Amino acid sequence: MEDTYLTLSTTSEGLYKEKGSKFLAFAIPVSSVSEIKSILEEKRKEFYDARHVCYAYIIGTERQESRSNDDGEPSGTAGKPILGSLLSKQLTNVLIVVVRYFGGTKLGTSGLINAYKEASFDAIANNDIVERKIEVPIEIYFDYICMNDVMRIIKDMGPTILQQDFDNQCHILLTIRKRDYPLIYSKFRDIDGVTIKDEKQ
């Protein structure tokens, strides 16, 4: 089971110049559309005097959501090559913003595509590509009498404990690597007195 993804470790910048035009690229790790909207607002305010603020992003551990925007450049000449740079490196949870200051000379379709692509690749090259594990949550409720059996599974399989509450009825919220989820699920299912949250009605 594929349970890792590639992303960037930090924010980085890139630069490409062509015939007086300047393309400033920013590669930024992100995790949600709302975060992306906030960053884009900030960039538009910061570079209010730029001709274009174009971008593309991919989010989701399985790269399930993506978008690109030409911001007034000819269709397909800005957002698409920015998105292409992310796809070619198999990155996700990354936003690339490219700010263009017009230098007075038109670059043409192929010139624009190349400029946005090169600026994006420069920003990625100035960063570190990192591999992250896909973690999924599992939440269980159990009687106190089951504590030893539950804790033994946790010790053996090594999930991350996010939250725990030991009262008359105990509750633990864990995350586990995606490939290990079916096994830990079945182990908890085998213990009488343990309920997994998605089974609670």
Describe the protein.
The protein has 201 residues and is α+β, with helices and mostly antiparallel strands. The strands form 3 sheets. Strands 2-3-6-4-5 form a 5-stranded antiparallel sheet, with helices on both faces. A hairpin with a 5-residue loop joins strand 4 (52-59) and strand 5. It has helices at 33-46, 79-88, 108-125, 147-157, 181-189; strands at residues 4-8, 12-18, 21-29, 52-59, 65-69, 94-101, 129-133, 135-143, 160-165, 169-177, 194-196. The model has no long low-confidence stretch (mean pLDDT 93). Helix 2 (79-88) packs across helix 3 (108-125).
Question: In terms of topology, how is this protein built?
Answer:
Layout: E1 4-8, E2 12-18, E3 21-29, H1 33-46, E4 52-59, E5 65-69, H2 79-88, E6 94-101, H3 108-125, E7 129-133, E8 135-143, H4 147-157, E9 160-165, E10 169-177, H5 181-189, E11 194-196
Antiparallel strand pairs: 1-7, 2-3, 3-6, 4-5, 4-6, 8-10, 8-11, 9-10
Question: Short summary of the structure?
Answer:
The chain has five helices and eleven strands. Helices cover 31% and strands 37% of the residues.
The beta-strand count equals 11
Helix content: 25-40%
- Please tell me what the overall shape is: elongated
User: Tally the helices: what do you get?
Assistant: 5
Major beta sheet, strand line-up: 2-3-6-4-5
Give the termini distance in whole angstroms: 30 Å
What portion of the residues fall into strands of 2 or more residues? Answer: 35-45%
- Strand-and-helix sequence, N→C? EEEHEEHEHEEHEEHE
What kind of sheet is the major sheet? Answer: 5 strands, antiparallel
